[in-house]
Specification:
The structure is a single chain. The chain is of the alpha+beta class and 295 residues long. It has three domains: 89 residues, DNA-3-methyladenine glycosylase AlkA, N-terminal domain (TATA-Binding Protein), CATH 3.30.310.20; 77 residues, Endonuclease Iii, domain 2 (Orthogonal Bundle), CATH 1.10.1670; 118 residues, Hypothetical protein, domain 2 (Endonuclease III, domain 1), CATH 1.10.340. Helix content is 45%, strand content 14%. The protein contains 13 helices and seven strands. The strands form two sheets. It has a five-stranded antiparallel beta sheet, with helices on one face. Strands 6-7 form a two-stranded antiparallel ribbon. α5 runs antiparallel to α10. The mean pLDDT is 93.
Length: 295
């Protein structure tokens, strides 16, 4: 085992609430768990189970991490520091959005309440993608339960007691019917299996998007070509897996309900929500995160 401890500075206006909510959604604590002012998460490093624990302080986070193998500590430190920075959304240009939103009469009150919010990231685009597929057209509670059972049944146990998310090459070798054991529908099981097989056989790569300024159109088109993957799944994956802050989540029921509250409408169609969100390009995904956090 290789272990390390490090500190990472936080921006002045950082809010930990979003990260604690996102990583605390699985009450069973299968792959992640919140404790006190921080959270723990299992992940992969060079195909070996690894783990980090984050604790928030006023101006920094303290991080403890280990991997169930012997690695160069400098290598592990680079991976963990980069991952934690990404997971917390530290490089997201949220100040630009807030300066615009605070001048908007509709958004002003909401943004004051949720100021400093960043979009917490999954530890990998693959985990963001499959979690999005599982979460299609079901409640957060139902999606969390299925995801938890899926990770425990198919994942790999780290010495911390947390499970690493199952990797594509393993899912590709499984019978698609095995995925049904976790409450996942037949359609979703087939989608998950086809995505895993495409990655395992080199027909799909989730590593092609490298920065916040990348062109997300190619990967969007590729993902949409898979049966069972629609616009909501793609935009949620880009938001949670790549920090793409302009994916329109007008198909999200909670987003639509919060827009209704903001503009004082009793009902709002998907197309009306889509049209309303166009006024807030290129921040539609980040705005969705603020709407989710809205009280």
């Amino acid at each position: 085992m290789t272990s390390l401890s490090l500190n990472i500075s936080l921006p002045n206006n950082f809010s930990s609430e979003g990260a604690l909510r996102y990583y605390g959604r699985d009450r069973a604590g299968v792959s992640e768990r919140v404790s006190g002012d921080g959270f723990e998460k299992a992940f992969w490093v060079d195909e070996v189970p690894a783990y980090f624990a984050i604790n928030f302080h006023d101006d920094k986070v303290s991080v403890k991490a280990n991997v169930d193998a012997q690695l160069k500590k400098s290598h592990l430190q680079f991976i963990v520091s980069s991952l934690v920075s990404r997971v917390l959304g530290l490089l997201q240009p949220v100040a630009e959005f807030e300066s615009i939103a605070l001048d908007d009469e509709i958004l002003k009150r909401t943004i004051i309440e949720t100021r400093g919010l960043r979009v917490p990231q999954a530890v990998s685009p693959w985990e963001a993608l499959i979690s999005s597929v599982i979460g299609q057209q079901v409640s957060v509670a139902a999606a969390t339960s299925m995801r938890s059972r899926f990770m425990k049944g198919m994942g790999t146990l780290h010495s911390s007691g947390l499970f690493c998310f199952p990797q594509p090459k393993f899912i590709a070798t499984c019978n698609v019917h095995e995925l049904r054991n976790f409450g996942i529908s037949s359609a979703k099981a087939n989608t998950i299996h086809s995505l895993a097989a495409a990655i395992a056989f080199g027909d799909l790569s989730l590593k092609q998007v490298l920065s916040l300024d990348s062109d997300f159109e190619p990967i969007s088109r590729t993902l949409l070509s898979f049966k069972g993957v629609g616009p909501w799944t793609v935009n949620n994956t880009l938001l949670r897996g790549y920090s793409f802050l302009d994916g329109s989540l007008h198909g999200d029921m909670v987003v639509r309900k919060k827009i209704q509250q903001l503009i004082g409408k009793k009902t709002l169609s998907v197309s009306e929500a889509e049209q309303w969100l166009t006024h807030y390009k290129p921040w539609r995904g980040l705005l969705a995160a603020h709407l989710w956090a809205m009280r």
